[in-house]
Amino acid sequence: MARDRRSHHSSGFTLLELLVVVVIIGLLAGLVVPRYFDTVGKSKAKIARAQIDALEKAVEQYRLDVGRLPTADAGLSALLTAPPGTPKWQGPYLKKGVPLDPWGNAYVYTLSPDGREMDILSYGSDGKPGGDGDASDISLATAPQ
């Protein structure tokens, strides 16, 4: 009978063993989770750059057809519906609607005062101009070539 008691008491984990396992899991999570979220942030920036590139190509096709860039007032919606006074419009220039950036915000379209240069940008995760890291702005000018 003495053997039965010993085997009964030795089955299962001690409190110390459980604490060691919990500490190890906590340390691993502390190392892995930040890297995971950093990778997710970088992936969203890559998606934004790809979408900006696609929007730029659509705007350039618009420019070839119409002879000028969309006005600042018409913005990227000019890629979907013909603005007034654009008889050469051949769109829509996008298959689906104008996408939102990976953070759920609208892309910003800007036009230079002379109407010859444009920029398309995302304000990043915070949706505000400027910022660092995931919150930094992504645009045609900042996209790696």
Automatic annotation (TrEMBL):
Similarity remark: Belongs to the GSP G family.
Compartments where found: Cell inner membrane
GO biological process: protein secretion by the type II secretion system
The organism of origin for this protein: Ramlibacter humi
Residue numbers spanned by region Disordered: 122-145
Topology of the protein relative to the lipid bilayer: Single-pass membrane protein
Alphabetical list of SUPFAM superfamilies matching this protein: Pili subunits
A single cellular component GO annotation: type II protein secretion system complex
TM ranges: 12-37
Domain Type II secretion system protein GspG C-terminal stretches: 36-139
Any Pfam family: T2SSG
Domain of life: Bacteria
Record-linked InterPro entries: Bac_GSPG_pilin (IPR000983), N_methyl_site (IPR012902), Pilin-like (IPR045584), T2SS_protein-GspG_C (IPR013545), Type2_sec_GspG (IPR010054)
Record's keyword terms, sorted: Cell inner membrane, Cell membrane, Membrane, Methylation, Transmembrane, Transmembrane helix
Protein's recorded name: Type II secretion system core protein G
